[in-house]
Amino acid sequence: xxxxxxxxxxxxxxxxxxxxxxxxxxxxxxxxxxxxxxxxxxxxxxxxxxxxxxxxxxxxxxxxxxxxxxxxxxxxxxxxxxxxxxxxxxxxxxxxxxxxxxxxxxxxxxxxxxxxxxxxxxxxxxxxxxxxxxxxxxxxxxxxxxxxxxxxxxxxxxxxxxxxxxxxxxxxxxxxxxxxxxxxxxxxxxxxxxxxxxxxxxxxxxxxxxxxxxxxxxxxxxxxxxxxxxxxxxxxxxxxxxxxxxxxxxxxxxxxxxxxxxxxxxxxxxxxxxxxxxxxxxxxxxxxxxxxxxxxxxxxxxxxxxxxxxxxxxxxxxxxxxxxxxxxxxxxxxxxxxxxxxxxxxxxxxxxxxxxxxxxxxxxxxxxxxxxxxxxxxxxxxxxxxxxxxxxxxxxxxxxxxxx
Length: 404
What we know:
- The chain is mainly alpha-helical.
- Helix content is 66%, strand content 1%.
- The protein folds into two domains: 3-257, Rhopdopsin 7-helix transmembrane proteins; 289-403, Arc Repressor Mutant, subunit A, CATH 1.10.10.60.
- A two-stranded antiparallel sheet has the order 1-2.
- The protein is elongated and about 80 Å long.
- The model is unreliable at 11-23 and 259-280 (pLDDT under 50).
C-alpha cells in the first residue's frame, strides 16, 4: 500500500517468469493496468453526472485513487523506476484517502442534504501529513530516487515508511467500521420513513465497504507475513491488484445502476437518530398520551378502510398527510406506542392481506407474485423476505399449512 511495501514485495517476485508477457508486462500487470484505465473512465463518468453531484464526485475521487494505486502497482512490479524515476513515491498519500472518500460517499449518499464543510477537511489531515513527510523524497534527483529504490530493495526501509505503514492499516480499518455504522443508521432511518426499501437501502454500498475492508485485511495479512519472513507462494501485489481491479469493475456495474436516493418528504428525519433510545428520541415532542391514542385510532381506521398500504411507494410523509398530522408525531406513535418501524407496520398489513388471500379461493387462483404486488410489495424477493420474517415460514409453506 506504499513504496516500501511495493518494493519489498518485488524481492520475492520472479516477474519475468509469470506467464505470457506483452510489451514487457506480464498478464496480471496488464489486468491491473486495464483496471486502472477502467477506473479512470468510470471516475470521469461519475464526476460529470448532472445529479447527485456530491456523492458521485466523492465516489469518483475514491475510484480515481484506486486507479492511481493500480498504476503504481504496475510501476513498481515492472521495475519502471529506472526509466521514470521522478514518479517514485508520488502516490504515497493515496492509501490515507481511500477510507475518508468511501466514508463521505456513504454519508452523502445516505443523506442528500449533506454537504462537505471545512470541518470535514480534517479527515484529509493524515494524507496531508504523509505528503509533507514525502517532500524531501520528491526533491531528490532522478539518480537519487533510483538509489533509494535500490536501497529499499536491499531492505533499508526509510523512517517515514516505518512510521506510516502501520497507520495506513489503522486508517483503512477505522474508516471501514465508521462507514458501516453510517449505513446501519441509514437503514434504520429508511425503515422509519419508507414502506419499500429497494430504491433506498444502499445495499450495494455496504457490499462495497465490505469488499474494501476485505482488501485492507488482505493487505495487512500479507504485510505481517512478509515482515515475519513467511513469504506467500504467490506475489502479494498480484493478489491486491486483482482484488482492487475486481472492485473497480463491480463499482462500475453496480454503482451506475443504483437509482438516486428518492424523495425525503420529512426533513425531521434527515439527521440519524439512535433507534435504541426511543424515550430520548421523543421526549420533547409534546405529544401526550391522549393525542397519541387519537392518532393511533385514526391510523388503524385509515389503513383498514382505505388500504393505503397497497401503495408500493408509500412513505411516512404520505401517511402523515393523509392523517393530517406531522411525520414526527406519526413516527412517535409507531415507535413508542406500537413498537414498530414504519416499514414493519405497513408491511405487516401487506403480509396479512396475502395470508388472507392465500387461505381463500385466491390462493389457488393467483400466483404469489400477483398477490404480493396487489398488496403493495414492490418485488418478489422483498415479499419473500418480509413474509418469512413476519410469519416464520415461506409463502408456499403457509399455503400448505392452510390446506391441511
